[in-house]
Amino acid sequence: MRLGVIGVDERAQLEALRALTLDTIMVDDFDSEELRAAHAPRAARAAA
Q1: Would residue 3 count as lying in a domain?
Q2: Angular region, 31: left φ>0, alpha ψ -120 to 50, beta rest
Q3: Total number of domains constituting the chain
Q4: What pTM was computed for the model?
Q5: What span, in angstroms and rounded, lies between the C-alpha atoms of 28 and 43?
Q6: Is residue 30 part of a domain?
Q7: Three-point CA angle 34, 48, 37, nearest 5°
Q8: The predicted structure's pLDDT at residue 43
């Protein structure tokens, strides 16, 4: 803003976009066992 590259409104839009982006990409942390179970063959999941 100091250099006049973007205005106050554009800065606010970029800050809102950054917040939305972070909310979108933040995911829960899954235990490695849960991840392995999710990718196990269907028969192995049924037996578990």
Answers
A1: no
A2: beta
A3: 1
A4: 0.48
A5: 27
A6: yes
A7: 25
A8: 56
Judge whether 2 lies within some domain.
no
Is 60 exceeded by the pLDDT of residue 47? no
What is the domain range of residue 33? Answer: 8-47
Place of tokens 């800065």: 11
Residue 7 banded pLDDT, cuts 50, 70, 90: very high
Query: For residue 20, is pLDDT > 80?
Result: yes
| Separation CA 28–CA 12 (nearest Å) | 28
Q: How many CA atoms lie within 13 A of 22 on its CB side?
A: 5
Specify if 27 maps to a domain: yes
Q: pLDDT over 90 for what percent of the chain? A: 33
